[in-house]
Design a protein that fits this description.
Elements: H1 3-22, H2 25-35, H3 42-50, H4 55-67, H5 75-83, H6 88-100, H7 107-115, H8 120-128, E1 131-135, E2 141-144, E3 149-161, H9 172-188, H10 193-198, H11 201-208, E4 218-233, H12 234-296, H13 301-329
Antiparallel strand pairs: 1-3, 2-3, 3-4
Helix pairs in contact: 2-4, 4-6, 6-7, 6-8, 9-11
Length: about 325
């Protein structure tokens, strides 16, 4: 075989490959058999190849929707959604499921939900088969009744998808937060924890009546209290802490008063010493005054002798009176027989 023949054969093979790649005859035949002539043309399939759209995905989607009775869907509608970055397979499955379940879901709404980042297939499945959300996801909700006793609750929220609210609606995290807030409020408004333990369904009704699903992507069907436990007596603990705090305040005030009393005592002692110093100073002035009186002739020798006699007599009387008082306080001696 010559080189020219080999090159010619290679070019023919490449041409055949490109022809069948850009002209998917097999998919066109499948479309004609499934949908009839005119629904999917060779031109449509070639255009999909040129626009880098998967013909198999579009053909299968159109065939599935038409077989399910959704004959209004065209290839260009699915192509547009594919080019916008949407999940065509999920949209097709969601449209078929919603039609069978008699859920009002249009193609425009489904594509908007898909492009918004939501799983439209899961949303339709949740509308048919509601799901259960734990509130909270882990652990318990802690709330305190009016009598000060803590209660730990855990709820199970049954929800289904609200299709019109999927675009811009809040997620299940918002549902969990709102249900938790409602449970805490319901327990906090109860007079005693015994009433809550006796009728836990009152909490469910109170929370369900608040309309917590407003503005969310879900519709709350029921709220059930799955677990309810008694915690610690928060009221008693708070009272004990308050009493301890009051005791510390009273001790601090008493310590302040004691310190003030000690300071005042020290101040009085200082004043006493100051007055004693003044007395000693005044007594020291007496001899000087007497000497001055002698010099000025205002005090004679006899006057001074008489004063000394009076002082001696006064001292003697004081010593006698002190001795008699001491004798009177001593018990009399008794002779032993």
């Amino acid at each position: 075989m010559s080189v020219i023949s080999i090159i010619t054969l290679a070019m023919v093979l490449i041409f055949v490959f490109l022809l069948f790649y850009f002209v998917p005859v097999g998919m066109w035949i499948q479309g004609v058999v499934s949908l009839g002539i005119g629904r999917i043309t060779i031109i449509d399939l070639i255009r999909m190849r040129l626009r880098k759209i998967s013909p198999r995905l579009i053909v299968d989607g159109v065939i599935n929707t038409h077989k399910a009775g959704l004959t209004h869907l065209k290839t260009d509608m699915l192509e547009t959604h594919y080019l916008a970055g949407g999940n065509v397979a999920n949209v097709v499955i969601a449209l078929i499921a919603s039609d069978k379940a008699q859920i009002n879901l249009t193609f425009e709404t489904a594509t908007a939900i898909d492009l918004a980042g939501r799983d439209v297939k899961t949303a339709v499945e949740t509308s048919v088969y509601p799901k259960v959300i734990d509130a909270p996801r882990e652990g318990y909700l802690s709330a305190v009744a009016k009598d000060g006793v803590e209660l730990k609750a855990r709820a199970r929220v049954t929800v289904r998808t609200n299709i019109p609210g999927l675009v811009g609606g809040a997620t299940d995290d918002t549902i969990i937060a709102r249900v938790g807030e409602g449970i805490v409020s319901a327990i906090g408004s109860s007079i005693s924890y015994g009433n809550v333990l006796e009728n836990p369904d009152n909490i469910s009704r109170a929370v369900l009546e608040k309309g917590l699903d407003a503005g969310t992507a879900f519709e709350i069907l029921s709220i059930d209290i799955a677990d309810l436990d008694v915690g610690k007596n928060v009221g008693a603990q708070l009272q004990a802490d308050q009493a301890e705090a009051d005791l510390r305040v009273a001790q601090a005030r008493a310590e302040t008063r004691r310190a003030m009393a000690v300071a005042e005592e020290q101040e009085m002692k200082a004043r006493t010493q100051e007055m004693q110093a003044k007395v000693v100073e005044s007594e020291a002035q007496v001899p000087l005054a007497m000497a001055q009186a002698f010099r000025e002739g205002k005090l004679g020798v006899f006057d001074y002798v008489n004063m000394r006699n009076i002082q001696a007599d006064t001292s003697m009387r004081e010593s006698i009176s002190g001795g008699s008082e001491k004798k009177s306080t001593e018990p009399p001696n008794q002779d032993n027989d």
